[in-house]
Amino acid sequence: MLNQSTEEAVRAFHLDLLNARDAAAVDLQRNVYKNYTEFVLISKEIYKLETDMWELRGLLSEFKQVNLDLLKLGNVEQETGNLEKVSEDVHSQDLAPTVATPSSSLATQSETQNRMSQLSTLYETIEGLSKILPPTQSRYLIRDGTTSRYAEINPQNLNKVIQNVHFFLLSDTLLVTTKKRGIISGKSRMVLDKCWSVGDVAVIDVKDSMEVSNAFKVLRHPDTFIYRSETLEEKRAFLSTFKRYTDELMVQKRAALDNVKTKQAASNPAPEDVTSPLRADADREDKARRALRDDLTTSDVKWLMELGDELDVLVAHRDFNVAVGLIEEARKLLAKAAAETPRVSLIRGNVEERTNHLAQLVSMDLANPVASKLQVQANIDKLLRLGMGDQARDFFLTSRTSIIRHRIRLVRFDGDVSIYISDLAQVVFRLIRNTCDWYGGSFRDTTMASGFMKWVSTELDNFAQIFRRQVFDCHPALSVIADCLQHTMHHCKPLKEFGLHIAPILTHALQPDIVQAIHEHSTQCVQSIVMAVDQDHFAAVDPKWIAGKEDEYADITADVSKSVYQLYTVLMEFGSDVSVLMSIALYTKIVTCLTDFFSTYIDRLLKVFNGKQTWLYAQRSVMMVDAVFVVHDLLPKVAGQLARRFDRAIPELEDMQMSLIRKVTALQHENFVGLIRDALMKDVWNFAALDYTSNGGILDTAKPSEHIMRLIEELNKIQGALSPTLPRQQILTTIVDQIFAAMLAPQSWQTPRQTPRRLGFHGVQQLILDIHFFLRICEPLVSDATSDAANQVCEKALRTFFTVQAGGAVVKAALKSGDWYDSRVNDVMNMIAAEFPHLLALQAASPS
Question: Keyword S-adenosyl-L-methionine on this protein (predicted)?
């Protein structure tokens, strides 16, 4: 492949190989972490099983001892004595040091002396050894542990070291020593810590883990000890020495036992009709040995023994297909073996070793990022034939993950997030689709489907992380997020052909980020609405301002201010941005945002309306028009569009509208009326402070007072300033009702000193004239309650006047009659009625 490549291409290929190796290492480490809990559980079960096996071994040993005791009680002392005598002879011949004779060689004598010297030195070095293990001539040193130090570890806490120890292996004993420092001398001395018979202990290797490394177990029923070496070489050296010596010892014991049985059979033949217990045991062992025949033919054994070299040659020539076929044939032959004999175990181990090596090479080819579909499927088929389906699946999916990561790094980002996400989704989902196609053609076993779905889930999580980092973490506009999601969902559609409907999975994974983005966007919208209300001058928008935008603002049919147009723009932009994101899962969030927009606008408008700033009547009229339009027109339209989109009613917006209608009604009939009433009664018609104490005569040309004229003028201005779309007459009628109700209040008929109010001859008639004129010119605004209140005011004024006269004042003339007041009102109406066109227009529009 690389013969015709340039140096740059070779370097790029080398870099790809390094990336593939690193990605495989990362995925392998991730799988280790993922399966760590199961590994710990299995390790505990294995540890428990080991303990149980050693307990069983101890029980069997005890049972064997009981049988021997029973044999002694069964009058077999002679036979047992002969056995012990022969056994001692054999043991002395095989294990004891050879006694030097004149015919012995100098090398043998030197070795014997060396063993005795080592053992003598050992007894002198280790304190307390001679008391526990008396010296014998047959014992000699196998391994000196003076220079090798090991650490004893607490089995419950593998990170805690109990003490440092040394191992000495003798021909029949395993010694564990530790060094202790003398308190007085200050010198270190070797002290015996444990002493075990070699036949009673077992040394088991412990695989390295995150908690401990270079460790091994020493099992002696019922105890378990864990030790750790400083280096891996020291551990391997000790384990190999112990295993090699114990194996040799077992072979020697078996040979000695066979010799004993042979000599016993020759010296003391058993009667034909009586079988001794030892003879019965020997027969049973012979039968067991015969039962352990593997029943393999000579040709099969020869072929299997030569198979390893042939597989090595095939692997070297990369002829993997033939090698896999030979391994399959070898497994079939081994499966026919009747028993697991040593040669079968040896052959099986050789075959499995070559199988693992072959599987590694095939897996490397499988992980090749430039392999074609046919090559990938062929390599997977080889691994499946070798019985490594899980390994084939893991390597294949790992390689596909590496390819996806590499292709993701090749996607360029030119500043446009939506284009980058579109390219990214196209690359990732196309590779997932191809992987699904290749996987389905290679792994036809349905049990492998779950592994592939886990892989797809992992890749979707990775895509979601990139999407979240590139889109949501940058806090772009909601329209950009909507475009990115739209591109992603578009590239998800081809996967439906393979049964992968991943759009809901991605939507669910990104749901919290979408909700947070909508929340942040709605917060900005709320701030824009508040700013629009605060900066609004509340004047009806000039038609020139919306020239060319008639289609954009076609839904605004009232004379409203700019803040309403800005609210409308916020609503339209929000609806356009969330249209792609809109789903039933986001229903609550979207409805909440819309209710916040409307409630924020109305609440802010009420705050500005009731603020300290002095607004003109026209501005307050525009405020009320804005509120009415938003609640009665704009809100129902938004609710209707949202109901059509979700295909259901929106009760939240309906409840919000009812609440806002109450606020708007209060704005018109409470807030506005209260502000105007207080302003009029304070600055224009402060009835309690008006002076009607004049006691002079009243002329036939008398006119209404200046105060009542100013009141009528203000009402005329209010009538003209209020929009026709508002209930102007109802609002003004309420104001007039409250003004006359206040005139009847007790405090209006008392002086600041809490004395009764005085009305003069001229003053009482002027008051009656003012009220008559007011009722006449403001007739459409006079309700029955106002008419009754006016009559009561006039009556109370006359009573007050006559009460004062009864106190001793002299009445100069009679009071004017009702006809006089009607005549004066008609004359004044003819002269100045034109000054109040809005009130006259209201009279003309009212029914007669």
Answer: no
pLDDT digits (tens, 9 = 90+) for 312-352: 888 888 888 888 888 888 888 888 776 777 777 888 888 88
pLDDT for position 264: 64
Which CATH code of 1.10.357.50, 2.60.40.1080, 3.40.50.2000, 3.40.50.2300 fits the domain covering 513-667? 1.10.357.50
* Cβ 597 vs Cβ 603: under 8 Å: no
Give the class (CATH, top level) of 88-98+107-266: mainly beta
Compute the mean pLDDT over every residue in the chain, rounded to the nearest whole number. Answer: 81
Tell me the C-alpha distance between 361 and 374, whole Å. Answer: 17
The DSSP annotation for 319-380 comes to: -HHHHHHHHHHHHHHHHT-SS--HHHHHHHHHHHHHHHHHHHHHHHHHT-TT--HHHHHHHH
Total Cβ atoms within 10 A of residue 274: 7
**Tokens representing residue 668 in the block:** 């018109």
Q: H helices within 471-582, ranges in order?
A: 478-492, 503-535, 562-578
pLDDT tens figures, 493-522: 888 777 777 777 887 788 888 888 888 888
| Three-state DSSP class for residue 171 | coil
Distances from the Cα of 328 to the Cα of 322, 334, 634, angstroms: 10, 10, 79
CATH code of the region 386-501: 1.20.58
Predicted pLDDT of residue 79: 47
Q: What is the mean pLDDT of residues 295-308?
A: 79
Contact 371, 364 (CB under 8 A): no
Q: Any idea which of 120-134, 528-542, 732-746, 785-799 has the lowest mean pLDDT?
A: 120-134
User: Residue ranges of the alpha helices (H) in 386-500?
Assistant: 389-410, 417-442, 449-467, 478-492
Please list the alpha-helical segments (H only) found in 95-231: 106-125, 129-132
CB 713 within 8 A of CB 683: no
pLDDT in tens, 214-267: 899 888 877 888 999 988 888 888 888 888 888 787 777 777 777 776 776 666
Residue range 660-682: mean pLDDT, rounded: 90
